[in-house]
Design brief:
DUF659
Amino acid sequence: MAASRAVAKFWHHSRLTFNAANSPSYKSMYGITLMYDGWSGTTKSSLINFLVFCDRQVFYHKSVDASNHIHNHQYILQLME
């Protein structure tokens, strides 16, 4: 578990792009899943959270204010770069 937390902190503090996890060697070595979740509040603001799942734990990576954007696959991919 300590290794998983260390990997997640490394990703977060190094500001690595999510594309790095597409490397076959990284996936087989660490077995991580990148996730995002978005919602709109009562004030019409829209947030997207990015999370990392590793070793049966979820780690927060970042949040993005997406209020002025259409939430389609192109926008989500742009945020992951």
